[in-house]
Design a protein that fits this description.
about 300 residues, FAD/NAD(P)-binding domain, five-stranded antiparallel beta sheet, 9 helices, elongated, disordered N terminus
Length: about 300
């Protein structure tokens, strides 16, 4: 695993990266930044890993974890299937060990509280309330952390992303998390046994299939196809600019609830894009969409959603 240090460009040497959140995403980002030479600090308010809800691990994610040194695979985590499952806490413990081995600093019991004004023109600063070490009184103390880049690993809560501006440094520039598109295409016949209504299930990510993804009409980051008992199910992630390009959203600059509001979406364009995704990836879709419902008015609607 340490061999990875020599295969990555040391593009972050002398840079400080602050990661807020010690979940799988935050820890994986910390490992990557450290492998690129950054000085990395991870802040986590909890004092232990107790989240035992189960993650689906796609094949490319498993290969990524293996590539950075994860060797002790559980049986259900290492079998040859499209998706495997593993409790979040187990992934966190494994990634924590790797983060520490490559030299990241992980501060357990530190709750990020926000940005602070700074006269330093080269770095920003953030504050956190941190649990004391044994040598300190039993009270939280405020600490200041300098950084060149900050990673929000707090999931949908978006604790850092909700900060509107950096004092003295203008507007925060943050990458919006990709939106998800879920589609159920109807079978053209019962049980999908006829020619043209069958395709191999898959789970792929742009990181590992760049040429294939780049050749598609709709640029996705991830796609998963599962053939259920009732429909062809596809879920993918797509960035705001791609949604705007296909006319699915009207204003790509909006965030949060305003971005997902029905007034900012074009359902017809979403359905058209969903059919294009099906064509891109050879997922049977000639029968149109599976219809779900009925709703309170007794109506059925196409099973196409953006979230």
């Amino acid at each position: 695993m340490l061999a990875g240090l020599s295969t990555r460009r040391r593009s972050l040497l002398a840079k400080k990266v602050l990661v807020v959140g010690c979940g799988p995403g935050g820890l994986r980002a910390a490992v990557e930044a450290r492998l690129h030479g950054a000085e990395v600090t991870v802040l986590e308010p909890r004092e232990g890993f107790t989240r035992m809800n189960v993650l689906h691990i796609w094949h490319f994610s498993k290969q990524d974890l293996i590539s950075i040194g994860m060797k002790n695979m559980y049986k259900q985590f290492g079998v040859s299937t499209d998706k495997e499952t593993v409790p979040i806490a187990l992934v966190q413990h494994a990634l924590l060990r790797i983060a520490l081995v490559v030299g990241s600093t992980v501060r357990i019991g530190c709750r990020y509280t926000g940005f602070v004004a700074s006269d330093d023109k080269t770095r920003w600063k953030a504050t956190a309330d941190c649990a004391p070490e044994p040598a300190y009184p039993k009270a939280f103390r405020k600490e200041i952390f300098e950084f060149d880049s900050i990673v929000d690993g707090t999931g949908r809560r978006g604790i850092v992303r909700s900060t509107e501006s950096l004092p003295g440094h203008g507007q925060v520039i943050s990458g919006r998390a990709a939106s998800g598109q879920a589609v159920n295409y109807a079978f053209t016949c019962n049980f999908a046994k006829f020619t043209g209504d069958h395709a191999d299930q898959m789970a792929k990510g742009y990181q590992f299939h760049m040429a294939e993804f780049s050749s598609k009409q709709v640029q996705l980051d991830v796609i998963v196809y599962f053939r259920s008992l009732v429909a062809h199910y596809v879920i993918g992630t797509v960035k705001a600019d791609e949604l705007f390009k296909h006319g699915v959203i009207h204003d790509a600059s909006l965030t949060g609830d305003a971005f997902m509001a029905s007034s900012n979406r074009n359902q017809s364009a979403l359905e058209k894009m969903a059919l294009t995704v099906g064509d891109d990836w050879a997922v049977p879709n000639k029968a149109g969409f599976f219809e779900e419902g009925p709703d309170s008015r007794g109506n059925l609607k196409p099973s196409v959603a953006l979230f």
